[in-house]
Amino acid sequence: MYGTAAFLTLALMASPGSFDGQAALRHTRAAVALGPRPSGSAAIRKLQAYILARLKPLGCEIIEDDFIASTPAGPVPMKNIIAKFAGTSGRAVAITGHYDTKVMPGTYFVGANDGGSSTGLLLELARAVSTRKYRNDVYLVWFDGEESVAQWSATDGTYGSRHLAAKWASNGTLSRLKALINVDMIGDRDLGIQRDMNSSQTLLRLVWQVARDLGYSRHFLNDATAIEDDHVPFLVRGVNAVDLIDFEYGPGNAWWHTDQDTIDKLSPASLQVVGQVLLELTVRLD
Fold first, then answer.
1. 64-85: pLDDT as tens digits
2. Considering 53, 220, 228, 259, which has the largest number of Cβ atoms within 10 A of its Cβ?
3. What pTM value is reported for the model?
């Protein structure tokens, strides 16, 4: 957990164009205020409008990737949102995360960390990226449909990332990707990101090196885990991809997919740590 002094130190490190964890938390709070946001719902359409409205002033190319997902509940309309900041090298880096929440019958699940934190972080990252120039194209992607509709499986869950991986493979974008970094559940006030064994280990080592160089090693752990997440559809197609996730959310992961996943469990300092690591990583990948 961060104390006031620690957060003030982080805030003082910020400079124009750098990442602002407080702003990321404000975006997360706005998403959570819409309530549960499962794919195809009225609430997620409001969140789509919120994301698009905040991207429009940033000078990026905005791509609305609409598709119909075949789910155990029938066809569901989904939308990936992509912000492309053009570079000059012909290569690209993608930073991704999901913005939907899981359908939890009988539970008012607002997904502050699981869906909300990645939404807010990407929005603030878009602002920060828009103030800089990169050699590589930078794609920021909000995935719809990460959550399963019924039971997690190879065909129920990661709808948006599976769709986009196939689309990018077809149109040639996939071959230009130097790296894809997916973020999920990274707002936890007690931030501890595990090493995902389902990730590219070379890229994972670079992320951990960046975290060490920035003084954030205590948040990037040596504990190993193996996570199926939105990076996997790209990884299996040969993309250099990693997943940054804190999958110990509350005692014994007790807040995950429960009504305890609320905004009070999040910290702007955690979002700032991850945001600053991603900005520096993007520079090094240039």
1. 999 999 999 999 999 999 999 9
2. 220
3. 0.94
